[in-house]
Amino acid sequence: MSKVLIIGAGGVGTVVVHKVAQNHAVFTDILLASRTKSKCDAIADAIGTKYGNKKIQTAQVDADNVPELVALFNNFKPELVINVALPYQDLTIMDACLEAGVNYLDTANYEPKDEAKFEYKWQWAYRDKFKKAGLTAILGCGFDPGVTSVFTAYADKHYFGRMDTLDIVDCNAGDHGKAFATNFNPEINIREVTQKGKYWENGQWVQTEPHEIHKPLTYPNIGPKESYVIYHEELESLVKNFPTLQRARFWMTFGQEYLTHLRVIQNIGMARIDPILYNGVEIVPIQFLKAVLPDPGELGENYTGETSIGCRIQGLDKEGKPFNYYIYNNCLHQDAYKETGAQGVSYTTGVPATIGALMFAKGIWRKPGVFNVEEFDPDPFLEELGKQGLPWREIFNSDLEI
Ligand code: NDP
Predict the structure, then answer these.
(1) CB of residue 13 inside a 6 A radius of ligand 1
(2) How much is the mean pLDDT over the chain?
(3) What per-residue confidence (pLDDT) applies to 122?
(4) Whether the predicted pLDDT of 116 surpasses 80
(5) How many angstroms separate the CA atoms of 13 and 32, rounded?
(6) Taking the CB of residue 188, how many other CB atoms lie within 10 A of it?
(7) Residue 1, pLDDT score
(8) In the prediction, which pLDDT does 114 show?
């Protein structure tokens, strides 16, 4: 019996609202708030009461504005806020949670607007404040970060005596029929994939040029796809929480067409995140670009194919024998669209966010402080993952290709 507030009415927000509404026995009252209220209303109207849920309430809020957030929280009195707005809003929403006594969950770590930097230090600095307030903050509860971190914790708990290497492998073999589009917020996505690569090896970070390291990796049911080492935020907490890891990398697939567009966008300055003066008005090129690119939330209708995301881990088993392990989920874009009207990338993010909220509401993932998801028990989360639409599979002692 829990009141939940969702902030952000984009692709991921759409999926979260469907999923919390499906779990209405736990989430009895749902409020969706975002910058543009009409988007919240459209999602609420599309769902109506079709899952047997109460009607979804909606509100307008500027999540950059702490007093506005606090007023909304005090009015609705949620137990938990699911933040699926943009990473820029993480800290203001956490501040408002502390002021109004509300628990917190997100799917992406804080980023300053003027610097594409993916670090947990800003949010980890809230540990003592949340602890003293007796509130829980759950960080990075999407797919990656999120399920990949839970997969790693599950591997450690059940199979490994010592994990030596971790390779997170993320393939989107879907086709949306557009020449160029990003699968989630274009500004956040382009900032992420154009930065320098970085991975963990022998106790330190190794930096690479963007997309410098690449090779084909074979994905279940998909086959070989060129995969590129990029930096991804969960590596930072995973190497801290699993300190035996000698190497930890993140691989993502990109098509040639996507990379060519990306190179052109960068070369002509459209990926710039600093303001420029245009006709006497300050604009940020990447924000302008977002306005002309396809809306990721609208890609679902013609999206075919599937995603495959998982963890490939090598080390020693509980008896000390060499052991390797691959745990993954494949998700079909068409199935995600049929259920929620959103494509697979939004779906694979929104489902785990809802499961994290379920874990919190049931008191299973609830302790005062700020935590990354691998710090909680992975078993009850993974038990729900398949039931909520993302079944997972395991492969033992195969060729990990790494
Ligand atoms: P969208 O851009 O589709 O949606 C973001 C929503 O947040 C929009 O509705 C937007 O409002 C709203 N918003 C932005 N700024 C504010 C503000 N100041 N106040 C209130 N609302 C605001 O993004 P996605 O749904 O694709 O992604 C949502 C989040 O999920 C992002 O943080 C992204 O990084 C994360 N993500 C995580 C993944 C994971 O696996 N962990 C994978 C994919 C995404 P408006 O409609 O007015 O623009």
Answers:
(1) yes
(2) 96
(3) 97
(4) no
(5) 8
(6) 19
(7) 64
(8) 82
Express as a percent the part of the chain with pLDDT over 90.
Answer: 92
- Quick check: CB of 185 below 6 Å from ligand 1? yes
The architecture of the domain spanning 147-341+388-396 is 2-Layer Sandwich (3.30)
Contact (Cβ atoms closer than 8 angstroms) between residue 224 and residue 211: no
CA 185 to ligand 1 center in whole angstroms: 6
- Please give the DSSP secondary-structure letter assigned to residue 294: P
Secondary structure (H, E, C), 324-351: EEEEEEEEEHHHHHHHHCCCHHHHHHHH
**Is this structure's pTM higher than 0.70?**
yes
**Spatial contact of 3 and 77, defined as CB atoms under 8 Å apart:** yes
CB 183 within 8 A of CB 172: yes
Per-residue pLDDT at 264 exceeds 70: yes
Structure confidence at residue 204 (pLDDT): 98
Tokens of 63: 């999540």
Q: Where are the domains of the chain?
A: 2-139, 147-341+388-396
Q: Return d(Cα 341, Cα 46) in angstroms, integer.
A: 9
| Cα 350 to middle of ligand 1, angstroms | 11
Q: Could you tell me what percentage of the chain is helix, strand and coil, using 3-state DSSP and rounding each to the nearest 5?
A: 40, 30, 35
Measured distance CA(234)–CA(373) in Å, rounded = 10
CA 378/CA 141 separation, integer angstroms: 12
2-139: CATH topology is Rossmann fold (3.40.50)
For residues 126 and 294, give the distance between their C-alpha atoms in angstroms, rounded to a whole number: 36
Region 204-229 average pLDDT: 97
Helix (H, G, I), strand (E, B) or coil at 398: coil
If we measure between CA atoms, which residue out of 136, 135, 168 comes closest to residue 152?
168
Q: Is the CB of 197 under 6 A from ligand 1?
A: no
Cα 269 to Cα 285: distance, rounded to the nearest angstrom:
7
Instruction: Give, in order, the Cα–Cα distances in Å from 5 to each of 74, 263, 274.
Output: 12, 39, 32
Q: Does ligand 1 have an atom closer than 6 angstroms to the CB of 11?
A: yes
pLDDT tens profile 81-107 = 999 999 999 999 999 999 999 999 999
3-class secondary structure per residue, 13-53:
HHHHHHHHHHCCCCEEEEEEEECCHHHHHHHHHHHCCCCCC
Q: Decide if pLDDT at 43 tops 90.
A: yes
